[in-house]
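#dry-run=false #mode=assembly
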Amino acid sequence: MSGARPKLEWRNVTKRFGDVTVLDRLTLSVETGRSMVIIGGSGQGKSVMIKLALGLVAPDGGRVVLDGRGLPGFGGRLQRRLLARSGVLFQSAALFDSLTVWENVAFRLINADGVSRKAARRRALDALARVRLEEAVADVFPSELSGGMQKRVGLARAIAADPEVLFFDEPTTGLDPVTAAVINDLIVDQVRRLGCTAVSITHDLASARRIGDEIAMLHEGQIVWQGAPGELDQTSNPHVRAFVAG
Amino acid sequence: MAPAAALTPVRAVGRLTLLCLQTLGAVTLFALRSLRAILLGPWFPGQILRQLAAIGFFSLPVVGLTAVFTGAALALNIYTGGGRFNAEQIMPQIVALGITRELGPVLAALMLAGRVSATIAAEIGAMRTTEQIDAMRTLSTDPFGYLVAPRIVAAVIALPILTVVADIIGIGGGWAVAVGFLDFNPTVYIRATVDFVQAGDVGTGLLKAMVFGLIVALMGCYHGYRATGGARGVGRATTNAVVSAAILIFASDYLLTTLFTRR
Ligand SMILES: Nc1ncnc2c1ncn2[C@@H]1O[C@H](COP(=O)(O)OP(=O)(O)O)[C@@H](O)[C@H]1O
Ligand SMILES: [Mg+2]
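#status=ok
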């Protein structure tokens, strides 16, 4: 494990909103091909961590490093490259409500990669099949789907262009346990199939155990614990114990 | 306590000034980012066509109705005013001038401020607060290219066209009351209008319309893009878009008119 190269690192990242310091010199690295799960209470800054990594939010200190090279700021070529190679499933799914399901899934292919609509549709249907959605949903609008199905469409959109890095922000929050288990399995399948590096956020421990090779806990702006899923129950770390006890 | 209380109004003025400068800077920055997207692309022709339909075509009924009633009312007022100098016969010329140079573009723009600025702010605001704009960026698509630029381009193209329509229908409204109630000769009225109106009258109106189109779309996009905090935030963005667009239309109308006035 020590020989593996980090794919993505947060190095001493600080982020403030007004007077509130959300992330305080946070450091974390994710190795290539591994699935990292970040746990922590709500409002601790988990979503902000992902947004920083994607360059949607600028850090006040430190930097995010991809393949050993720093993301210096907004709009840079490196950031565009990261975005071109990553897929994101947002907490709210964030589907475009004015576009049909397949147009959502094919959005990057059509608008950024210059793929023809016909070829893009074929690839979108393929991605939908991979998250076990039938062709029938391709032409409806996202608002006509249930929450669980919207998450699946979001997942299909994230994997449609075969990304190298996948980000999942609370993929199972708000879903019933059965649907949540389905989503967890789909995530594990797709991360394996694509062989990509994954960063997931959750406060659902079952989900964390299922999809993580490694788990890190965010508390008060820093990573206070990091370990394998099996170690969650053994650790004496008070924050983790409190979290596991619910 | 007393000196602090005495300074309160000063502090308020200072804060207001800073806020104004801050807003001006933010709007300018937003406009520059939009301009870069318009000039350098990537372009989305499908989105531009869609916005042309939404902004231009579907605004025809409101703009037409506003113009016909205003043209008719203007004609009656000028008839009354002209009557005081025994100059009723000059009515067609004054109506044509008032419509082409001023009322056509301003009325069309105000209708668009109500209809289009509001829609744009609500659409983009909803996309912002539901993370759709963030999602778009993670899909390697610049929201300024995909959302903002097509709306601005469409509005700048559509408003001059709507203004031509408003000019024609407005003058038609004046013609209708003149012929219907005031015993003007229909062909003489039209002859008088056509002979009098200069290309410059219509041209200045169209130039104004382009600026107003920019204002309408820019205010909608700017306020929508900055919306925060769910449905309430979107509502606030919509109101701000309409109010700021309307005020800027009137202010820039005055400024542009001073440029077009030869003394
Ligand atoms: N754009 C923003 N502006 C102001 N505050 C923000 C913004 N984004 C997040 N925050 C604040 O940062 C903190 C962490 O948010 P978040 O990362 O969403 O938490 P979570 O761990 O639940 O995902 C919260 O207190 C939130 O209010
Ligand atoms: Mg979150």
